[in-house]
Amino acid sequence: QVQLVESGGGLVQPGGSLRLSCAASRTISRINTMGWYRQAPGKQRELVAAITNGGSTNYADSVKGRFTISRDNAKNTVYLQMDILKPEDTAVYYCRADILYSSVRYYWGQGTQVTVSS
Length: 118
Fold this sequence. Notes:
0% helix, seven-stranded mixed β-sheet, mainly beta, four-stranded antiparallel β-sheet, globular, 53% strand
């Protein structure tokens, strides 16, 4: 098992930046994949970005070139650097850890609100 705690959300103007952090309760070096997801009001939760324990990354088309996911294994933390933020990025952002046992188990954080508005 792993507990995840997100932080770094807030209110930012369009064009601004935020960095989200996801701190894990255990070492992340053996967690297969860690990802950031978001859910806007009235919409389904969607993948924003993910990073494997080998360092491979994957991004939603809507954030490519603006968001960067990274991981610091020494701090058991995954980050999401968000630049050139747009109003449509407004959502609750969730961290997820995918751990392979006999099957894959998914662990979620509680979420952090990001609001992009002037």
